[in-house]
Each structure stands twice: as C-alpha cells, then as structure tokens.
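---------- Forwarded message ----------

FYI, see the Pyruvate dehydrogenase (Acetyl-transferring) record below. Original note from H. follows.
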Amino acid sequence: MYENMVTARHYEERLQEEYLEGKQPAFDISAGPIPGELHLAAGHEASGAGVCQHLRDDDTVTAPHRPHHIAIAKGVDLKRMTAEIFGRETGLSKGKGGHMHLFDPDVNFACSGIIAEGCPPAVGAGLAAKKRNTDSVAVAFLGEGAIDQGAFLESLNMASVQNLPVVFVVEDNDWAISMPKERITDVANGADRADGFGLPGARVDADDAVAVYEAAREAVGRARDRNGPSLLEVQVHRRMGHFMGDPQEYRPAEDEEAAMERDSIERLEADLRAHGIDDETIDDLRDRAHERVEEAIEWAKDQPKPEPEAAYDDVFVNPPSGVTDSEPSVAETGGDD
Ligand SMILES: Cc1ncc(C[n+]2csc(CCOP(=O)(O)OP(=O)(O)O)c2C)c(N)n1
Ligand SMILES: [Mg+2]
C-alpha cells in the first residue's frame, strides 16, 4: 500500500510539473505537453490503495475524474496510462481519452469525467460475475459531490435487490469543485444512506490507509463471498485545487492547511516504523516508486503523437458522412444497423 501511495503522489507531482510547462504566465489550458484539464488526487491515496489491495485483475474498478491513485493501485499499465495522459498514440486509448478517460481492459479499469457514471457499469460487471458464476467483484469509486446523482442511487438499489458483488466507495474530500459538503447534503455520515437501500454501510473517518484496508476487506470479502453489495465512505482530503489552475478563492485557508496536515502517506510511514520497518526498507520502496514514475514519464514523452488523419478512428461505429470513406453514415443507411 505504501509503495502504491508513494507512486501515486510522486506521479502526480511529476505530472504537475509537466502540465505547467508552457501554460504560464497566463494560464493557457491548451498549451504544453498535457493539454486540457488535470484533476490531481493528492490526499486521496489511502482510499485507492486500501481498497484495491483486496482486488485481483479480474475484478472491475470504475473511477471518477480524479483517477490516478486508483488506477495505480489497480495495476493499470503506468507507461501506457502516462502516454494516454500525454495524448500519445501508444496510450491506453491511443491518446484520445486523456487523464479522465483511462481504460485498461487487462485489469478491468475504466474512469470517466461524468460524475457517478461509473456506478451503472460496475453494477453491470457485478451482474456479469453473478451470471457467469465467478467470484469476481466490482468496485465503483465516486466523490461525495456525486452522491445525489440518479446513476448512483439507482445503482445502489439495483445492486441491492439483485444481491450483486459490488462495493461503492465514496471518497469524501468535503468539496465538489467550490461547493462544500454541508451545502450538498444534510446526511453527514454517508454510510447512513446505505440503510435506505437495505445494504451495509461503513465510514472510515480518517485519512488512514490501514483503516480503509480493514473496512474494504470486509466489504470486498462480503461481495466475493456472494453476500451482496455494500457502501463504504472514506474521508480523504483534497490537497490541491479542484483542477490544476484552480485559484481556490472559495476555500478558507484553514481548510487547505488542515488538508495538508492530514497526510495519509506520512501516517502510514509512521505506522510502518512503529511496526519495526527500518529506514532502509522505506527508502528502497520510495526509490523504486520514483524510478518507476520517471521511467513511465520518459517513455511516454518519447512516444509518437497520433496522426491527424486518425482523429476519427475508433470514435464512431458508423462514421458520419464525409468523416471517413470507409463506411456509409447512419443517415445514408437509414440507421438500420
Ligand atoms: C453529471 C455531471 N455533472 C456535473 C459535472 C461537473 N463536475 C465535474 S467534477 C464535479 C464535482 C465533483 O465533486 P466530487 O464528486 O466530490 O469529486 P471530487 O472532485 O471532490 O473528487 C462536477 C460537478 C460532471 N462532470 N458530470
Ligand atoms: Mg469531493
């Protein structure tokens, strides 16, 4: 877990440097080696690491727009993920998805920029596991800002009535862009919502990877043993703005300071030391994580950019007229197929 968390944190520190290249002095979102938005998950690491520690490659994970720590913990190919973020041809989706739309079928991972969008596909994966009579499970991660989306609530209900092996993990960082949690809901403890759907709920109140690990062991174990879905809410903290370039004028300074103080990585490191893990072992883990990140970033930056002609490949099943000459458009065929 520590290695995953340090990898995720360092990965994002390096992405941040690469992202800012060429974007200043005036913030030009389209400039530089990583164009577009970038949502960093620094402060969320305990959630991805603690939950995914219980998962296998055949288990499905769906993640939201802040996905890097979860993708890393799920074992997504770091080089191809990085190439995707840099918009390169060898990226997971040939550079067309970017950082919010990472998809790695080898480890059954997907994420989306549409909040709560991962819940129905996770229910689908759970239903598939049930029908195929396997013991794989599905986990849908979402932010606390997405908990009133119909997709989430309907998914909770469907998973519950069908008794599906799905775990819903709400990462509560107290903010949905500039909207504080208390303006979103009067239900302070998200685990209470589970009662309304007849499934178990738990909340981990601290940025504590070991506590997340223990709560997730129960939730994932329950799903794997075919005892049905559950809801887990994890308190995390957003150490950065909502996205890179967010001036956070809406955020009280004390809130940001508090987020910086509650560092789950430092906490886990202290736990490891208290359990007799020596400095050398911790340094080795950290060095290995940093090397892996450097390798992935260097590799990605060397990868070719897609040819402009490839812009419409893999985008439309049936391309509109004039986009490519390979297939007739829906309009031309009348949409029969
Ligand atoms: C369906 C939908 N509505 C609105 C948005 C715009 N949007 C992007 S992120 C976000 C807030 C997300 O907050 P939260 O779920 O708490 O995740 P966090 O960013 O805090 O990790 C919103 C409203 C969206 N992406 N999808
Ligand atoms: Mg949030």
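H. also flagged this: Residues 136 and 322 are 43 Å apart (CA to CA).
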